[in-house]
Amino acid sequence: MSEARDDTKYRPEESDGGYSRGNVVDHNAPGVTDNGVPHTDVGKRATGGEPHVIKVQPLKRSEMQQSYAQDLGTGEVTHGVYGSCLNALGSCVGFCGAIPCCPLPNPFRNVQQGSVGLVSRFGQFYKSVDPGLVQVNVCTESLRIVDVKIQICPIGRQKVITRDNVDVEIDSVIYFQVTSPYRAAFGITDLRQALIERSQTTLRHVVGARAVQSVVTEREAIAFEIAEIVGDVADKWGVAIEGILIKDIIFSPEVSSSLSSAAQQKRIGESKVIAARAEVDAARLMRQAADILASPAAMQIRQLEALQVMAKTANSKVVFVPMQLQSDVVGKMAAASGSSHAQVSDEGADGVNGSIGQTALLNSVANI
């Protein structure tokens, strides 16, 4: 008879109303929630002060690699007795090869993440598999792995002649992604080389239709146009063009010097235009200032400022003459000299006497 098993001997020690079962979480234990630890609490414990929020977003299924798994079946093609014998032989060899340390071929293959496996039987494609462990018949089936990640391929440095007959060398790269593994694997012999050749031809065509100045200033437009043209053709190969990047544009020393001199002359012309506009603005402001200062009030202000400066000079005598008196004397003298023959003699005599009197007054003031 077997003795009864003591459950308490194998039960872990309980603590705080619950016990641990290895990596299994007891959701009924106190303090355990389905929401996890709040971000703010983690930040406070990490820094000991103000909360420092670190947001970690979990991986979503929609962001993972899409499934390409598809089984078309072998159909009615059985290849008769020969095909059946090969299938049976492959199954036996694969069964033995799955045993560790057995020298026979292993029927299991690994398909890495970011790739798709295409399985063919007797050379005929019949199913595609997702990443993981795949079993194939070692005698009748073959597995071809296609990379579906975004790939970077250098186009190479190309020497192109622009529309204005200038030689330039352009270095660029292309970004592409396989969207149809079947067409990329069985629809074209060398996908990468085909994309390179197509991109080089399109690059020469697009750059050759532009002037050298447009090539320098419109890199993004050129790259976008090349990507559109290549993308239309690459779509038939099961490839999507993510973009084309122009890395560098190289000119010969003569072309570089001419471009730099042209840019320098352009900057000089722009500086002259700016200086001319500044002179026009300055002349306009000076004209406005002159119009403002020509008013009687402005003249009186300037006269007072001049008198203040003269009064500060040592050993000087300053006599203040009203501005109105000076203007009256000058105006009457001009009127008397200009209209002496047209006016009546009495009025002229009175005007002259008045002018002489005011002039004598000014002279006497000046002699003081």
UniProtKB/TrEMBL annotation:
Q: Which InterPro entries match?
A: Band-7_stomatin-like, Band_7, Band_7/SPFH_dom_sf, Stomatin_HflK_fam
Biased composition annotated in UniProt, kind: Basic and acidic residues: 1-14
Domain of life of the native organism: Eukaryota
Stretches the record annotates as Disordered: 1-52
Q: Name one Pfam family in it.
A: Band_7
Domain named Band is located at 106-263
Example GO CC term: the record gives:
side of membrane
Similarity remark: Belongs to the band 7/mec-2 family.
Can you say what this protein is called? Band 7 domain-containing protein
- Organism expressing this protein natively: Antrodiella citrinella
